[in-house]
Amino acid sequence: MLGHCIQFGSGREFLQSEAFFADAVFKAIYGCHMALFMLVSGYLFGMSLKRHTWRQVFASRFTSLLLPLMSWGLIGVVVAVMHYQSIVPLIKEIVWRYLHSMWFIWAIFYNSLFVLMLRRFCKDSALIYFIAWLLLFVIPDAFNLSLYKYMYPYFLCGYLTCKFDLLARLQDRICSNWGLLMACAVSYVLLMQFFVYESYIYTSHYSIVNFKTGAFDWWKLGNDIYRMVTAFAGSSLVLLSVYALWKKTSQLSIWKTVAKLGKASLVIYLFSGEVIFSHILPKITQSIAPSCFINLLETVIILFVCYLVYMIMRNVTVLNKLFLGGR
User: Fold this and answer.
1) Pick from 275, 271, 278, 289: nearest CA to 12
2) Cα(76)–Cα(207) distance, rounded to whole angstroms?
3) Which helix (H) or strand (E) holds 122?
4) Average pLDDT for 127-133
5) Are 237 and 276 in contact (CB under 8 A)?
6) Residues 273, 6: contact at Cβ < 8 Å?
7) What count of Cα atoms within 13 Å lies in the side-chain half-sphere of residue 122?
8) Which residues in 158-172 are b (16+ Cβ under 10 Å) and which e?
9) 89 Ramachandran zone, left/alpha/beta (phi>0; psi -120 to 50)
10) Angle in degrees, 0-180, between the axes of helices 178-192 and 166-176, rounded to the nearest 10
11) What is d(CA 90, CA 111) in angstroms, rounded to the nearest whole number?
12) 198: DSSP letter
């Protein structure tokens, strides 16, 4: 939800300025948050392939991802029709709602289909996976491709980690090796010192080819590799920290709450983004002076409302299928 809070919350004017991109907390989160998301998504995708047949997983990609994408996008369409009077801004808004605001779900969809095809017809060829990664550096970045390309190596690593049971093999070493945790922490802090505006996932393209001049922008290759190393270091730090904390406190009920919020995360993100932050909150907070208390209160209320919407959708069969993919 931090991405939404860039426009709303404490210090709105500051959050909309370029100075915010130099904020240490923002950099620490945006340096690895989407990579972490895709690592986990790839791992869970691998778990699905172990529990279900190839055909079942292939079909579920459409019912659990594509169908909710269409359904949530329809909400954006309805709101856009009510908001825009002329046809051109309306079409732009509809396209943006479908392709940009939910791009990370599209990324899961495309990456999972690609892995499924290679698993089925190429026996998970490491060479083809590697060649595909190299090709990402030279194909155009149009139509959100820069974002999808950025996510590919993390999804693939999560999937391969599950496929080869790397976590099970390294569990004892990871659990007891505090040096590894410290190494990731130190590495991430050091790498963050070189994190600049062009390092953000949303502000830099992926392709190293400048198609206007026909030349290579070699600095982008270094930038892409740097972002990848940084993202892996940050993701490893978060995963190791959470795992170490869970091992010490697994008996606490707080983890049940975290699990419930995790199941509702799709609704929390999309409902808050498509409805609350886009259309409701701006009108409510227009005359309210921003403060930390107001920002915290907004967060609590929004989480409560979104979780309530999730509970309603989960318990209504049609809504469950359309918006949650039958989860």
Assistant:
1) 289
2) 30
3) none
4) 96
5) no
6) no
7) 12
8) bbbbbbeeeeeeeee
9) alpha
10) 90
11) 30
12) G
What's the CA gap between 208 and 69, in Å, rounded?
Answer: 30
Inter-CA distances, 162 with 35, 114, 125, 201, 296, Å: 16, 17, 16, 25, 37
Given a cut of 90, whether residue 313 has pLDDT beyond it is yes
Predicted pLDDT at 177: 67
Q: Where does the pLDDT of residue 229 fall: very low under 50, low under 70, confident under 90, or very high at 90 and above?
A: very high
Between the alpha carbon of residue 121 and those of residues 54, 125, 159, the distances in Å are 11, 9, 17
The token duo for 218 is 């070699």
Within 164-217, where are the H helices?
166-176, 178-192
CA geometry: angle at 156 spanning 247 and 26, to 5°? 65
For residue 216, the cross-strand partners are 209
Residue 27 has a CB neighbour count (10 Å cut-off) of 19
Q: Is 3 left (phi over 0), alpha (psi -120 to 50) or beta?
A: alpha
Q: What are the two backbone dihedrals, phi and then psi, of residue 210, each rounded to the nearest 5 degrees?
A: -90, 100
Task: Output the six-digit token pair for 57.
Answer: 């997983």
Predicted confidence (pLDDT) at residue 240 exceeds the cutoff of 50: yes
Burial class of residue 5, CB neighbours in 10 A (0-12, 13-18, 19+)? middle
Calculated CA dihedral for residues 317, 96, 153, 206, nearest 10 degrees? 180
Alpha carbon 179 to chain centroid distance? 28
- The pLDDT value recorded for residue 308 is 94
Q: Six-digit token pair at 197?
A: 């505006």
- Name the amino acid, one letter, at 307: Y
